[in-house]
Amino acid sequence: MLSFFNVPKYSVFLFIFINLLSFIHPIQATLCNGHESLCSRRYNEVTYLITHDSYAHGNNIAATQNEPIIQQLNKGVRGLKFSAKKDPSNLHLCHTSCTILDAGSAIDNLNKISAWLKENPGEIVTIFWNNLYNYDINYLTAAYETSTVVPYIYTHEQQDHPWPTLQEMIDSGKRLVNFVDVGADTSKTPWLMDEFSFVFETPYDNTNPDEFKCTIDRPKDLQNSENMMYVVNHFLYGVIEIGMKIEVPQRDKARETNGDSLQKHVDECSEIFQRKPNFIEVDFYEQGQALQYVATFNGVPPPSSVSSTDTTDGEPVVDASKTSPNAFEEIREKGRKISHVIIDNISSSANPIITTNNSSLLSSIVISSLLVIVFLTNNILY
């Protein structure tokens, strides 16, 4: 008998056991916002898709999105635009008027985002607050501090400091970046940053699909934009008149607006500012190719078309049907789910990725099988 068979039985068993453990606990590739290649990039070196008035969804004249916030995040949106109005007791997310569209309290929405971040530990999210009514920033701070989102808040200590990499943000657990356009007081709340100290925006009041611009609209009279991030605002308003002019989102044109029109606008801005945009802001994001363009800018695989099976916290998903010319007609087929695009492995809570290549995996299986045979033979013959 070969000398190999004289190896003590427990040694062979131990070797087999250790070898098999490699299959039970596969090595996970680190994913940052869904892709390993983004981990080494700094926060300001990545392009993120923002949904304009992210909370304003549903069968409503003021809705700018078809899907609730959590489903947007599930699909690959990584920037949220909020505005709030003061209720007697707290802040509510409202579009123009809470009578027209009230998406609930800021606290409740922040809690939903907190729960999502907990379930998706490899994701970085940014919130932009549009402080339309110039509320005291303490109201907004209080909403955050009452919510469960505080442990995830990122603080950028000094304006001239480099931004961390996505991997560094994930390692620290500080994965929620917060900006406000008016009223920031970083001496008291350093984590709620003054947007226009870090970011500038292109014009947002767009009513003509042929006139999207790449000028700096906010902040006004910016002297030096070289080291700033920027937002490309690419959403379209329609105007209706009922004794006064009212601007309403153009749901029926979203597929075109988020298609070639978006690509042309973003390419033009990239050329003018000599760098890619950090944030692309759109309405009805799942219509058109917004997610695909963001993937292209980040140099990651394009998304695949799939049917939505994501949970929505019980909130309705509205079919992107055509809005009538007077903008008051009910949206047809409400509640029917639609096809969406999803960036591959967008959520780092996805299944582990086995980093071993196929040939080495096969070799390990063969070796383990042979050792099992040897062990059994050793037991039978001796």
UniProtKB/TrEMBL annotation:
Family matches, as InterPro entries: PI-PLC_domain (IPR051057), PLC-like_Pdiesterase_TIM-brl (IPR017946)
Signal peptide: 1-29
Residues that span the membrane, as ranges: 361-381
PROSITE patterns with a match to the protein in the record: PIPLC_X_DOMAIN
Domain of life: Eukaryota
Keyword annotations of the record: Membrane, Signal, Transmembrane, Transmembrane helix
SUPFAM superfamilies for the chain: PLC-like phosphodiesterases
Name of the molecule in the record: PLC-like phosphodiesterase
Source species: Phascolomyces articulosus
